Each structure stands twice: as structure tokens, then as C-alpha cells.
Amino acid sequence: MKIEPKIPIIYKNKFPKNFVNTPDGWAFSEKVIKANKGKILTLDIDFGNYCSLNCPHCFRRNNKVDFGKNKVMQYSDIVKVIKDAKKLGLRSVKFLGAGEPFEDKRFIEFLRFLHAEKIIPVIFTKGTVIGDDELAKKWNSHYGINNGKQLVNELKKLNATILLGFNSFDTKVQDEMVGGIKGYTLKRNKALELLVRAGFNKTNPTRLCLAMNPITKQNVKVLLEMYKWARTRNLAAIITPTMVAGRCAKEIEWSKITPSKKELVNLYSKIYKWNLEKGISTIEQLKHDGVSAYAGVMGCNEVACGMYVTLTGKVLRCPGDDKTLFGDIWSESLKNIWLKSENYKRAGTFNCGCPPKIGKSIPKSFFLEVMAQLDKIKTKK
Ligand code: SF4
Ligand code: SF4
């Protein structure tokens, strides 16, 4: 059954001239990137290892990732990584895994620490804890937080940006996508409504984003409408083909689910056409900035101003690449790892395209083809 969360429209017609096209802390403007050349502005990190969902492609067993004999970062190790990165310029931290960050009793404590350090937390979540009062209480009652509304209020105080998993409006499809967990979608919708009520989408840049990833053969036809639905409500949207990493490390796995190049080019160009019509950017800006790996939002600059620190202390190029290892925090300082990294050499670059995906999950010349297709659509008008 299709259930649309009740979220009022914010931008009915044109977007404001000063509109910032990224969720807060996710990517950085060209001005910030150039003014802070050589600094680590963002880190992707893993925090915790538990998740009660059961997505079909997830590599975890019994709700946890098995790290084998690898040493795993403890709370104090992660704090040290952040403090070291702060000295190198850190402004935001993205929580990627290795589980659902809200299913960890020390998560709020960690967010409070980040807040004291003036670092923006950017949190990927499926929304199960926020949208379920019992779970919000289970994981947070020791902070005096006993329901979803109180949890959301705390997140607002802590200046968090939320990237909420959002693959479908259809409850059956969405429940299936997290492992056939009945009632999941209703909790996710409740989480979204609570966040909106608390004003997470009232700011510019927005602090609320829908992670619609990945683009698959099933959703490629509905993503344009979902994108428009989100953006008119000042919810950013993350839309990109699946990464050849983690759960989809085998090429055969992602080629089974990823649509054809033609369909991808079509989707991206329609999204950019809509952006131009709505004034999210001008054609001159788009030509200057280039097409983003995340359709329609600011280009990814993670690989010029960030790195990914996994729970085992390995430092990787970015979350889309589990092969390019820069070092590990047990044997070398974060500063050294950063200074000799390939990302540091790219410092100052605004839109980096997407080195790990180009030629793999994003076909070569893809961005140029999107621009060419966009030109065709515009000429036809
Ligand atoms: S939400 Fe993420 S960590 Fe949890 S089961 Fe799904 S893919 Fe795995
Ligand atoms: S470089 Fe590509 S895979 Fe890596 S974070 Fe950016 S968009 Fe994602």
C-alpha cells in the first residue's frame, strides 16, 4: 500500500536565490573547499555494530558484523580520531555503519561530544528508533529521553543532519527492502514526520535528506517523482547507483540490480532539467560545477577533503571504495595518513566526480552524456 507521509510543501514554485544545494555538513561549497585547501573537512566513520533490520544484501550475521581477529575501535579510540581530525580542520562527521547508530546506548553521548567540538553530525539512519517510542526509550532512557519526539528534540539541539533511508512510499516494497520487517515503513514515516515537525527542513541548507539509494531496475522509473516530492519539501535527496563495495562488492551483484546506462543518463538529465526550471541552479552554474555523482545535489568532494575510518581502524579513500587503503590508525597518526593520501593530493577540488564508481557502477563519460542529453531536452522545448 502506498502511504505518503504528510509533509507540507515549502518550495511550490522557484527556489530562493541563495538556496544551498546540499544537506548541512554533507558536501562543501567551492568557496569553502578552496579556502580550506589541505584540511580534512569531513570524516566518514563507523559507530557501533548492531542493527535490528535485515536488509537482503547486508553482510552482517546475528545483527552484527564479524570483524574476525581485527582490533575494533572502542569509544575512546573514536573520540581520539575525532580530536586528531579536529586539529586538521574537521567540520562534519558522517555516520555510515557498521550498524544502525541509534541502536547504541552511547550514541547520544558521542553526539554531545561532537557538539561541544562544534562538529556537525550527519547521520544515516533507517529511522526505526526515532519512529518507535519503545525503541527510543530502550536505547536512550538513561539520558531522560523516553520517546521519539524527545529524541528528535535532542538531535535538533545537537545540530544534527539526518539522512533518512527512503526507498519507497509503498509499505510492502519498503518493508521487504529491510528484510521483510512488517510495520517498518510506518515507523520510518513517523520518524520523518517528527523530524519535519521539529523543523529539520526549515533551514537553508536543510538538515533533512532522504537517502533513496541505490538506483535499481525496480525504482529507476519512480525516482524522478520521489526526487521532486522531496525537494519541494526542502528535503535533500541522495540518488546514485549502488557502490561496488560492501554488500555489493561482487560486480555480478550490482549488475543484477543496476539499470542500463541509457536509463541512468535519462534519470540524471531529467533531474537536472527540473533543477534548472526550479532555479536550484542556472545552466552556467551547472556547466561550471559539473554533474554530481549524487543526481541533482552538490558534487561530492569527500575524496578531496575527507576519508573513511572503519570500525577496525582502517582508513579508506571513501565509503564507496573498500579497496584503496590509506593506512590504519593503530600504526600511524591520522595526520600522516592524511598527508600521504591520494585525497590530500586532490585537495582544493570542488566536484571530484566519483573516482571509485566511474567505469564501474557509473559508466565512463557518464557526466558528459548527461549534459549532452540535457542540451537535447532543452533544444526540443
Ligand atoms: S540497515 Fe544497514 S546495517 Fe542494518 S541490516 Fe540494513 S544494510 Fe545492514
Ligand atoms: S567519491 Fe563517489 S563513492 Fe566516494 S563518497 Fe564521493 S560519490 Fe560516494
Task: Walk me through this protein's architecture.
By secondary structure, this protein is α/β, with parallel strands linked by helices. It has one domain: Aldolase class I (TIM Barrel). 36% of the residues lie in helices and 12% in strands. The protein contains 15 helices and nine strands. Strands 6-5-4-3-2-1-7-8-9 form a nine-stranded mixed beta sheet. Strand 8 and strand 9 (321-328) form a beta hairpin. Helix 8 runs parallel beside helix 10 and helix 10 packs across helix 15. The radius of gyration is 20 Å and the shape is globular. The protein starts with 29 loop residues before the first helix and ends with a helix. The mean pLDDT is 90. The site of one iron/sulfur cluster (SF4) has 11 residues, from loops.
Question: Summarize this, please?
Answer:
By secondary structure, the chain is of the alpha/beta class. 36% of the residues lie in helices and 12% in strands.
What's the helix-strand series?
HEHEHEHHEHHEHEHHHHEEEHHH
CATH topology: TIM Barrel
- Total DSSP helices: 15
What is the CATH architecture assignment?
Alpha-Beta Barrel
How does the major sheet shape up? 9 strands, mixed
Q: Name the poorly predicted regions.
A: none
**Percent in helix:** 25-40%
The CATH class is identified as: Alpha Beta
CATH 4th-level superfamily? Aldolase class I
Q: State the secondary-structure class.
A: alpha/beta
Report the C-alpha radius of gyration, rounded. Answer: 20 Å
Question: Can you count the beta strands?
Answer: 9
Whole-number total of structural domains:
1
Strand fraction band? 5-15%
Strand order of the largest sheet: 6-5-4-3-2-1-7-8-9
Overall pLDDT, averaged? 90
Give the bound compounds.
iron/sulfur cluster
Distance between the termini: 36 Å
Q: Given the C-alpha coordinates, what overall shape results?
A: globular
